[in-house]
Amino acid sequence: MLQNLMDTAIKNLGDNPIRIYSGSGNHASPLHEVLENLIKKEKASDLLKIFLGKDKDKDKEKNKG
Questions:
Q1: If you compute the radius of gyration of the chain from its CA atoms, what whole number of angstroms results?
Q2: Domain assignments of the chain as residue spans, ordered by start
Q3: CB count, 10 Å around CB of 62?
Q4: pLDDT tops 60 at residue 54
Q5: CA-to-CA distance for 34 and 25, rounded, in angstroms?
Q6: pTM of the model
Q7: CA dist., res. 14 & res. 5, Å (int)
């Protein structure tokens, strides 16, 4: 059993660490994962339009008053 543990440890530690990050499923942070999912669903542009549109409306209200 100890021999098997040692063989597994040597194999895993000896592998190239880049293999862990080479896939597209590994994100730097949860925010990156959320943004990628939004972009895939094409909702990111809609959200940006909503946020930018609201900011413009607030600016117009400030300039009026």
A1: 24
A2: 2-64
A3: 8
A4: yes
A5: 12
A6: 0.34
A7: 14
Q: What is the distance between the alpha carbons of residues 10 and 3, in angstroms, rounded to a whole number? A: 11
- Cα-based angle 10, 13, 16 (whole degrees, multiple of 5): 125
Please give the structure tokens belonging to residue 54: 């609201």
For 8-42, write each residue's pLDDT tens digit.
999 888 888 777 776 667 777 888 887 777 777 76
Sequence-distant (6+) residues with CB within 8 A of 38 are 44, 47
Give the residue carrying structure tokens 């959320």. 34
For residue 5, give the 3-state DSSP assignment.
helix
Q: Which of 24, 49, 55, 20 is nearest to 37 (CA)?
A: 24
The continuous run of DSSP H or E covering 55 comes out as helix 44-64
pLDDT for 1 beyond 90: yes
